From TrEMBL:
<keyword id="KW-0175">Coiled coil</keyword>
<keyword id="KW-0698">rRNA processing</keyword>
<dbReference type="GO" id="GO:0030490">
    <property type="term" value="P:maturation of SSU-rRNA"/>
</dbReference>
<dbReference type="Pfam" id="PF04147">
    <property type="entry name" value="Nop14"/>
</dbReference>
<feature type="coiled-coil region">
    <location>
        <begin position="229"/>
        <end position="272"/>
    </location>
</feature>
<feature type="coiled-coil region">
    <location>
        <begin position="752"/>
        <end position="808"/>
    </location>
</feature>
<dbReference type="GO" id="GO:0030692">
    <property type="term" value="C:Noc4p-Nop14p complex"/>
</dbReference>
<keyword id="KW-0539">Nucleus</keyword>
<comment type="similarity">
    <text>Belongs to the NOP14 family.</text>
</comment>
<feature type="compositionally biased region" description="Acidic residues">
    <location>
        <begin position="325"/>
        <end position="354"/>
    </location>
</feature>
<comment type="function">
    <text>Involved in nucleolar processing of pre-18S ribosomal RNA. Has a role in the nuclear export of 40S pre-ribosomal subunit to the cytoplasm.</text>
</comment>
<dbReference type="InterPro" id="IPR007276">
    <property type="entry name" value="Nop14"/>
</dbReference>
<feature type="compositionally biased region" description="Basic and acidic residues">
    <location>
        <begin position="301"/>
        <end position="324"/>
    </location>
</feature>
<keyword id="KW-0690">Ribosome biogenesis</keyword>
<feature type="region of interest" description="Disordered">
    <location>
        <begin position="301"/>
        <end position="361"/>
    </location>
</feature>
<dbReference type="GO" id="GO:0032040">
    <property type="term" value="C:small-subunit processome"/>
</dbReference>
<protein>
    <recommendedName>
        <fullName>Nucleolar protein 14</fullName>
    </recommendedName>
</protein>
């Protein structure tokens, strides 16, 4: 017999054996006593709850005010004449029935008069001489019917009068509600006149304290519980990981889109028809960007036009609604509190500044706009005090709080547009000699533009663009339109205002997204400048390098490949090489046809050369003056060396972010050749070090073994497998498995098997009981023998003592 079977018999059979001749038993019915999974604390808690519930039910058994919400079946509600008592207890005069109608002036109203009672009740109807329609006297039944009809008529008239009274009351209440705002406005005007008069008195300290206590509960806001430094650090790390995850998702969005498009393309069996205006890829020339630009410009103009129409419609509708809501709010303000002098003056200033307007053009006539324009005009004459200017902006932002008026959102957008315009105007100068830019002011404007765009324009989508995003879209569309309207020979690099507008875009919007509605068009416009603009002077080279640096800021995180930047930098190196001193080698002998084709035509046709003719020891410092040069001015060799050094620094940065590309060798093969011919004895030492550093880095990356393309190995698709149907282990003759005899034999075999197992279990039970009985009998015998030994030992001691006493007597 196994150990499990023995334990099972001890818990079941042994218990029945011990209790076989007992008439009663003790059962422990305490909560959780027989549950081994419940801890001691849980047991005590559940017992305490059950005890409290028991006492609560016993005490609240006859409590009519206590509703049993835990048991919906026991819920009840006291009523009187079909109406709930909870609705009646509102301290209002409620007419429950016609019989309850009592008038203070006439207490007998609604009661039957004494004449009718004496005439018709208690054996009446005898002195009546009234006759019915047939000329006979009315009997009792007819009198009762007539009495019931009259009582119903009186009840109907009273109900009709009450309904009329209620309608008049509601009409008067409605008129009173319309009059209340006018009374409040009149009271405020009177209070203002009193305060402006010569008899102005300061508010009492006690009144101020009482008012502050009245609104203290409204100002109090619930706060989160205090957190430890570990919890705060954990939340910070979680927020950083979440932001990093979202950043990577937006950066790698194209991979998911490509996979979805590939899957949908494979699922579709029928190809869509090609439209009539379709142009194949063979008909488009790679060197002709006009077709692509016209397509992109048409799409942008359609979207921009539709967006402007929607914004104009929505702005008009929202302005009308805001006008109505402001009028209602001004009328419904309560006069329970009398505002102080400072608060009243502030509201008067806000009302003067924030005038309602139906369109964005209406904001131009407001006071704060004129003040802002006056401050901006001073930039041409005097320098602006940053503290005063920042204080002025903060005061405007406080007045344009959207919580006060929904129309303030449009005012903030209008303010943002003015800030951007002012930001661009800081970089417009007639000549480089008058160039003076306050970078602290630029940083301040960038901060506020970023705050407004991030706070109110972060919910922009393609279907519902934000007006803040629309401002930048409009700027980029105008830049694109102006550039495309120029002739090819007149296209020049943008000035400082446009360059720093691109810089502003990179500071405000996320540049790591794969596709962004502002960043992506901005990057395309910058690369178009690098490709199609002519180089007329050295200032164009400086502006081109600045654009290349901006492009690097756009792609530094995503590491997106922008070939225009590398090719422009190669063009700068091409202009820096003195081809007259290349040991008699011609350009075509040094560079292949493919390498020459990668250099832009603007560098081949320009006469601007930046090769160093004289030896220079140091590099000159570059500034914004170099970016603003538009004339053909001879520059010093030190400035040329600085320009070449700046170009090489940019090539080093681009080579680092493109170092993991499989086509790194082909991208920088022309750069490596040009660096070899750029070395000269006239170069400064720092420039030579940077050239050697770039060459070594390119050679190091070129020596890496390349991974060649391999055909995609498709994983074989496994055949669908069905789960096997497992049958029982019954063995029977297949020749007779459907006959009645086989079923009878199967049942007989099962019966014998079960009988054998039952006999075995009974035999084991008997053996277990026999062992138990044997142990009990042996225990009884042991106890009996022990007792006999104790008795015999006591008798022997007694006999010994008796013999001892007997001998002493003798």
């Amino acid at each position: 017999m196994s150990f499990k079977a023995h334990e099972k018999r001890v818990k079941t059979l042994l218990v029945e054996y011990k209790n076989q001749f007992k008439g009663n038993s003790f059962n422990d019915k305490r909560i959780g006593e027989n549950d081994k999974n419940m801890s001691l604390e849980d047991k005590m808690f559940k017992r305490f709850v059950a005890e409290r519930q028991k006492t609560k039910d016993r005490k609240s058994k006859f409590n009519l005010n206590d509703d049993d919400f835990d048991n919906p079946e026991k819920n009840f509600e006291l009523t009187h004449y079909g109406q709930s008592l909870s609705q009646i207890e509102r301290f209002e005069k409620v007419q429950l029935s016609d019989d309850d109608e009592v008038d203070e002036d006439d207490p007998d109203k609604g009661k039957i008069n004494a004449e009718f009672v004496s005439k018709n009740f208690f054996g009446g109807f005898k002195d009546n001489n009234e006759e019915n329609e047939e000329g006979k006297k009315k009997n009792r039944k007819e009198w009762i019917e007539e009495m019931i009809a009259k009582s119903k008529l009186l009840k109907y008239e009273r109900q009709k009068e009450r309904d009329k009274t209620l309608d008049l009351t509601e009409e008067v209440d409605k008129e009173w509600r319309n009059i209340i705002p006018l009374i409040g406005q009149m009271n405020r005007q009177l209070a203002n006149e009193e305060q402006k008069g010569p008899t102005n008195t300061k508010p009492d300290d006690y009144d101020v304290l009482v008012r502050s206590l009245q609104f203290e509960s409204e100002k109090a806001k619930p706060t989160d519980k205090l957190k430890t430094a570990e919890e705060l650090e954990k939340e910070r790390l979680e927020a950083l990981s979440k932001n990093e995850k979202e950043l990577l998702e937006r950066m790698n969005k194209e991979v998911e889109e490509v996979n979805e498009e590939e899957n949908s393309r494979l699922k579709k069996k029928n190809l869509k028809k090609i439209p009539s205006n379709h142009i194949s890829a063979d008909d488009i020339e790679f060197d002709d960007p006009e077709y692509l630009e016209m397509q992109r410009r048409d799409e942008l103009s359609k979207k921009h036009k539709q967006m402007n129409d929607d914004l104009e419609k929505s702005s008009i509708q929202e302005a009308e609604k805001d006008q109505e809501s402001q009028d209602e709010d001004k009328e419904e303000q309560s006069d329970d509190e009398e505002p102080s002098e400072d608060e009243e003056n502030e509201h008067e200033e806000d009302d003067d500044n924030l005038q309602d307007s139906t369109t964005t053009d209406g904001f131009k006539n407001e006071k704060w706009v004129k003040q802002f324009e006056n401050i901006c005009i001073k930039k041409n004459t005097d320098s602006i005090d940053l503290k005063n200017f920042e204080g002025f902006l903060k005061s405007i932002i406080e007045k344009l709080d959207p919580s006060r008026d929904e129309n303030n959102k449009k005012r903030l957008c209008f303010l943002t547009e003015h800030l951007i315009t002012y930001y661009q105007s800081l970089f417009k100068f007639k000549s480089p000699s008058k160039l003076h830019i306050d970078m602290d002011l630029v940083n301040l404007l960038t901060k506020y533009i970023f705050d407004f765009t991030y706070k109110y324009g972060n919910k922009s989508t393609k279907k519902e663009p934000s007006p803040y995003v629309a401002i930048f879209k409009n700027i980029l569309n105008n830049l694109n339109k102006d550039f495309l309207n120029m002739k090819v020979s007149e296209r020049v690099f943008p000035q400082l205002d446009t360059l720093f507008t691109f810089k502003l875009v990179s500071n405000i919007f996320p540049t790591s997204d794969f596709r962004h509605q502002i960043v992506t068009p901005c990057l395309l416009i910058m690369t178009r400048y690098l490709v199609q603009c002519r180089i007329q002077n050295v200032g164009d080279l400086f502006r081109g390098l600045f654009l290349t640096n901006l492009c690097y800021g756009f792609i530094s995180k995503s590491e997106r490949y922008v070939p225009e930047c590398v090719q422009f930098l190669n063009g700068v190196l091409y202009s820096a090489v003195d081809w007259n001193q290349t040991n008699g080698e011609n350009k075509k002998q040094v560079l292949s046809d493919y390498e020459l084709s990668t250099i832009y035509e603007s560098f081949k046709r320009t006469k601007v050369k930046i090769n160093i003719s004289k030896k220079s020891d140091k590099l000159a410092d570059l500034s914004l003056v170099n970016l603003s040069q538009n004339e053909k001015v001879q520059i010093d060799d030190s400035i040329k060396a600085s320009l070449i050094s700046y170009c090489i620094d940019l090539l080093i940065t681009f080579s680092k972010i493109y170092s993991e590309m499989s086509s790194f060798r082909e991208v920088f093969i022309l750069t490596k050749k040009l660096l070899g011919y750029l070395k000269s004895e006239n170069n400064p030492i720092e420039l030579e070090k940077r050239i050697v550093r770039l060459e070594e880095f390119i050679n190091e990356k070129n020596e890496r073994p390349r991974e060649y393309l391999k055909s995609l190995i498709k994983k074989p698709i496994a055949n669908k497998l069905h789960e096997p149907k497992i049958q029982s282990k019954t063995k029977f003759d297949p020749r007779h498995h459907n006959s009645v005899i086989s079923e009878k034999q199967l049942m007989t075999r099962k019966y014998k098997k079960e009988l054998k197992s039952a006999i075995k279990e009974v035999r084991q039970d008997n053996q277990f009981l026999a062992r138990v009985q044997l142990e009990e009998q042996l225990e009884k015998d042991a106890k009996r023998s022990q007792k006999v030994k104790e008795i015999m030992s006591s008798l022997a001691n007694q006999e010994g003592e008796y013999q001892k006493i007997k001998r002493q007597k003798l």
